[in-house]
Amino acid sequence: MSLNFKTFLKKIDNYLLPSRCLICHQVNSLLCPACRVKIKYLAPHCPLCGRKSKLGFICSNCQPKASNLYFEAVFALGKYEQNNLKIALQALKQRGLRPLGLIIGRLLGRRLVKEWHQYTLQNNPSEEVIIMPIPLHKKCLRTRGFNQAQLLAQGIAEICPWPLNYNLKRLSYQKPSAPLSYSTERRQKKIFFYQGSDNLAATIIILVDDVFTTGATANAAAQALKQAGAKKIIVAVAAKSL
Ligand SMILES: [Zn+2]
Ligand SMILES: [Zn+2]
Questions:
Q1: CATH number for 107
Q2: pTM for the complete prediction?
Q3: Domain count within the chain
Q4: What digits encode the pLDDT tens for the residues 66-111?
Q5: DSSP characters for the chain?
Q6: Ligand sitting nearest the alpha carbon of 180
Q7: Nearest ligand to the C-alpha of residue 50?
Q8: Domain containing 37: what range?
């Protein structure tokens, strides 16, 4: 079966299916309010040592080990290993149930804005903030028909007072190599680039993806943004694999 035909069937399937909750199977919404509240939030922590930290910033102890990382923090809604969240994210990606991207994005946005408020109370940043989804390669976008990170970013933007920015572009289909398992930086092919002409020197970027596993993709995207002058990058994901 050709990929385009598969995408077509997936689209038809989505129109025909009633909105049944993926978890409790009640006809209501793809993820009903009762099942949404059962998603256990992950307390923000340093992505390197796991110690509690505001918004998931890399803690001061781990800073010396983070020279090959281009993002400052990783903020996640929940653990990937958590059933409800994993089922929802897999259904979004594999079955193409796009409204799930917005539902989960709004949950992430609510959580993020609450933690952000506590962070700004202490740090009082005057920086501009933008929300930016990690792009898919056009070949992958053609096959899947949508970018799950973009849907999540749109959900976040419905809740948070920051604009969306789609100027990060993907050049390569290749997967970047994992940054967290190597102490020295390895040369790798340029995978992302920032297309915008705006000055990012005072900008905090909320870089959005669905799952954070090795951090390789987020780091490669963050590297391109840092090269474009971005001040700080906070990776915001629906789920973090622990
Ligand atoms: Zn339910
Ligand atoms: Zn740490």
A1: 3.40.50
A2: 0.89
A3: 1
A4: 999 999 999 999 999 988 999 999 999 999 999 999 999 999 999 9
A5: --HHHHHHHHHHHHHHS--B-TTT--BS-SS-HHHHTTSPPPPPB-TTT--B-GGGBPPTTTGGGGTT---SEEEEEEETTSHHHHHHHHHHHHS--THHHHHHHHHHHHHHHHHHHHHHHHH----EEEEEEPPPPHHHHHHHSS-HHHHHHHHHHHHSS--B---EEE--SSPPPPSTT-SS-------EEE---S--TTEEEEEEEEEESSSHHHHHHHHHHHHTT-SEEEEEEEEE--
A6: 2
A7: 2
A8: 3-240
